[in-house]
Specification:
The complex is a heterodimer of chains A (111) and B (121).
Chain A lengths: L3 E3 L4 E4 L4 E7 L6 E7 L6 E7 L2 E5 L2 E6 L4 E6 L8 E8 L7 E2 L3 E6 L1
Chain B lengths: L3 E4 L2 E4 L5 E7 L6 E7 L5 E8 L5 E2 L8 E7 L2 E6 L8 E8 L12 E3 L3 E5 L1
Parallel strand pairs in B: 2-11
Antiparallel strand pairs in B: 1-3, 3-8, 4-5, 4-9, 5-6, 7-8, 9-10, 9-11
The chains are: A mainly beta (111), B mainly beta (121).
Chain lengths: 111, 121
């Protein structure tokens, strides 16, 4: 079983839609949860990070962590064509520890 | 945010030759840098962790003699793919973190380079 599971998609939505991206994981020791956005042929950039459970909101982006279900989500409101990218979840047990990445979900927002 | 520069962004080489990829942190000191490779439609795969002034720690299954990593300063790490073969063709990405060593406050951020696309003919 992989440490982190993420549906690779592809996911295609119309502009303005709410997008839900999800990851599940198996290691209950994970405490740090990150979402990265990667444009084609570029390195990933950090979007959000959350420690332990709960929600975090930043503009149109909301990250949720449900440790009891070992499930994390990233919501994008009012999606824009510029949001078209691959979104990677990543998690770690703590500072200085290895990051475990999901496979990434490819998102296309259609104008 | 912090900037990590990776060079070259793409390289084509002949089978059997060696290729060096540089990763530089431009505006911060990175005690630790990470090297990944990414195949199409797949996730980032951690290859090794590079600590300044010490030997890199390689992940299981990664050949240390094939993928030479040097982290000579707090702003530069290099990955050398030795005797490259077509199966080494991939997208290689580095990242650097602040506060990862010494137990200092964890920012939760890894700053990634733009990636280097290697094609071995």
């Amino acid at each position: 079983q992989k440490e982190v599971e993420q549906d690779p998609g592809p996911l295609s939505v119309p502009e303005g839609a709410i997008v839900s991206l999800n990851c599940t994981y198996s290691n209950s020791a994970f405490q740090y949860f990150m979402w990265y956005r990667q444009y084609s042929r570029k390195g990933p950039e950090l979007l959000m990070y959350t420690y332990s459970s709960g929600n975090k909101e930043d503009g149109r982006f909301t990250a949720q962590v449900d440790k009891s279900s070992k499930y994390i989500s990233l919501f994008i409101r009012d999606s824009q064509p510029s949001d078209s990218a691959t979104y990677l979840c990543a998690m770690s047990v703590g500072p200085g520890n290895q990051f475990y990445f999901g496979t990434g979900t490819s998102l296309t927002v259609i104008p | 945010g912090a900037v990590v520069s990776q060079h070259p962004s793409w390289v084509i080489c002949k089978s059997g030759t060696s290729v060096k990829i540089e990763c530089r942190s431009l505006d911060f000191q990175a005690t630790t840098m990470f090297w990944y490779r990414q195949f199409p439609k797949q996730s980032l795969m951690l290859m090794a962790t590079s600590n300044e002034g010490s030997k890199a720690t390689y992940e299981q299954g990664v050949e240390k003699d094939k993928f030479l990593i040097n982290h000579a300063s707090l702003t530069l790490s290099t990955l050398t793919v030795t005797s490259a073969h077509p199966e080494d063709s991939s997208f290689y990405i580095c990242s650097a973190g602040t506060g990862l060593a010494g137990g200092s406050r964890y920012t939760g951020e890894l700053f990634f380079g733009e990636g280097s696309r290697l094609t071995v003919l």
